[in-house]
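Dear colleagues,

For the upcoming journal club I promised to circulate an example of a predicted protein-ligand complex. I picked one with zinc ion because it came up in last month's discussion. The inputs are reproduced below in full, followed by the predicted structure.
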Amino acid sequence: MIVSQSAIVPPMSARAFSVGAGQIVRVVDIDGRQPGDFVAFKADDFEVRMSQARSRVENQRVTVTQGHSLWTNTFPPEIIFTIVGDTHGAHDLLYTPCCRYALETRFGVSRDGCLEQLAKALEPWGVKPHEVPDPLNLFFDVAVDGAGGMEIRRPASVPGSSIELKAEMNCVVAISTCSVSSADRENSAYQVEILELQCASSAVTSQ
Ligand SMILES: [Zn+2]
C-alpha cells in the first residue's frame, strides 16, 4: 500500500477528501478517546450519499466494525464503503452530528459543532448544512438499554486506534473531530491517510 494523501484534522474541525474507488481511508485517533464523524457522497452525484439508517438496517446493527459495509440512500442501495480494518471494535450508527444548537442547549457553550465543521469542509462542493447526512460516528460509544433509551458512554479508544474504510465507488468524504469537550480529556486531532494498492504497471515502469 502507498499513501496517496495524508492530512491532519485538527481538534474541533473537519476536512474533506476526494477518494477513488478501491482506495482506503485510514483514520487514526492519535491521542485516543476522540470521537468524530464520517460522511460520504458519490463523487459525480452528491444526491447519492451514505445513509446512516440504511447502513443500520442492512447490517442489522447499531454499531459497525471490520467486515461491515456502509450503504447509499438509493433504491436499490449500494455499498459505498467497506470497513477493512478496525483496531477499536465499534463505531456508532445512531447519533446525529453535534451542532451549534446542541452545544448551546445541552452543554452551554457557543461554538460550531461537527455539523457546521463538516458543512464548511464540503462548501467547495456546494453542500449546505441541512444536506450533511447523519454520519458514521467514529470512536463513539452509545449504549441502548432494554427500554429503548440511549446513553452516550465515555470514549474509550486508546491512542493510535484506527479504522480503515475501502471506497467502493469514487467519493468525496468529510471527517470531523468532535467539538464536544469533557473535563477529563483534551479535544484532539485525527491523522487521515488515503491509501492505495501499488498497481502492477507502476511497478513495471519503475524498473
Ligand atoms: Zn461532534
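Two points we might discuss: Residues 97-98, 113-114, 178-180 surround zinc ion (CB under 6 Å). The two ends are 18 Å apart (CA to CA).

See you all on Thursday,
B. R.
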